[in-house]
Amino acid sequence: MKKTVIILLLIFFALNCAAADANIAQELEKILNQKQSLDIIFFEQCVISPSLIDWQCKALGNEIQTLDVNESNTLLNYGIEVYNRTNKSMKIYSLVKKDSWKENSFVMELEAFEKKRGDFYIDVNYAGKEFEEIEIAVLGLSEEKNIKKIISIQLDWKEYGLVKQEVSGIVLPSIGISALVLAIMSIIAIGIVFSGRKQLPPEKGEKTKNIFARIILHPGFWVIALAIAAWDTAYTFNRYFNANDVSYTIESFIVSSVFAITFPLIFLIIIWLVDFYEREPLHFIISMFLWGMVAAAISLVLNTAIIGSVGSIGILGFIFGAIAIAPLVEELSKGLGVFAMSKHREMQGALDGIVYGFCIGLGFAVTENLLYFTRLSPAIFGGNLTDWLFVLFYRSLFCCLSHGWMTATTGGLLGYFKRKTGSSKLLYFLTAVSGAIILHATANASILPDAITSLMTGSYIPFFNPLVDTGLTLIFAIAIFGYLRKDKERLMALLGKKNK
Hints:
Elements: H1 2-32, E1 40-48, E2 55-59, E3 65-68, E4 74-83, E5 90-97, E6 101-110, E7 115-124, E8 131-142, E9 147-156, H2 158-193, H3 211-217, H4 219-239, H5 246-274, H6 282-311, H7 315-341, H8 350-375, H9 378-381, H10 385-421, H11 426-445, H12 447-457, H13 464-499
Parallel strand pairs: 3-9
Antiparallel strand pairs: 1-2, 1-4, 4-7, 5-6, 5-8, 8-9
């Protein structure tokens, strides 16, 4: 009986609320036909982009306002200051007219002769038209009289539509060029591997007793790693999915994915082939690459939790998170993989560690770049194709190399310690990863002067950050060349003994 009464009461209240809403809607419709004007002292329009980077405000007059919109799902924030000249309380509502008047919302209530400020929001989404006109009505309801104020807004979607067409036009070419380049690289790799070049013999002794190393190198780990990578990809797509323009979002995501995977795979093939005289087993290279993708997922969870809480204190918190917390979390996550490999007999020196560390960094860069590329795509962030392509190429080149060399620092030092001492200890790992953390913090800090310069000049031309990444590349190139010469000398000495 009690349940029946409760259900009936809920139905009664729901019907009353629906009836009340209908009555308000009818009253608002009546006011629209009246000539009396609401006394609005101040009317301001703010355009808020989905990225929350672009926030532009201006006062509105009586003329028709033209608004250039380059992002779907843009939020228009209207701030109004109203003076109630009646001797009765007044409720303020807003209405929007696209095809018909709808979406009424309560803004605020004013007492008799009260002046007050209030805000309301309107979502605008791309509907396939170059130009779209909407009308916004602010209505006042009181017992004494009902009044209104109507503003016309013309939305200009021309730029948005053009950029959408441009992005759509590069989907197939990007896939085709990527497939062609990777195919050529693969053919070159196969040719070099089967060229008959002499190699140093494999290291002797037990492979490894380390459980973590065995897990990472097991084919079953590949399945787990790919599942985690798939989850990470789905997370990225879902987080930045624009339901108001599905095709645009999908096309942008495809291009982002192509760039995110192509450059790391190119660098992966190169670093594997560079070790001419003692090439690492291919399944080791793949395992390290996949561990990098797993490390990116771990870092995503930890960075979101830690930097999110630190960032709540303001911009200084975010800077501290980027320079101190992110390098610590990311290099420890990546470094665990190369530390596990240092327990294996295949990793005997600095060059082996550099190769393994670089592969882990590349796997990490795939996941991180996909997140950045999708978030900064015109479908989500707005902007034009040129700016997005700059981000795609810049991060694909410099950020891949940066992450690779940072973890190569951990691997190289671990390999060096193992060559000198014959063992791999936790102390050696902590020492090695500290170097990677310092390099990572330096690279992240180098973004600050570039950001300050861009604020002063009005255009972003990176200098310090690519300078750091280029410097790391040159240093490691020299180091790799030096170790290759030593390997060549070992190989020549070995071949000389056999000939004797």
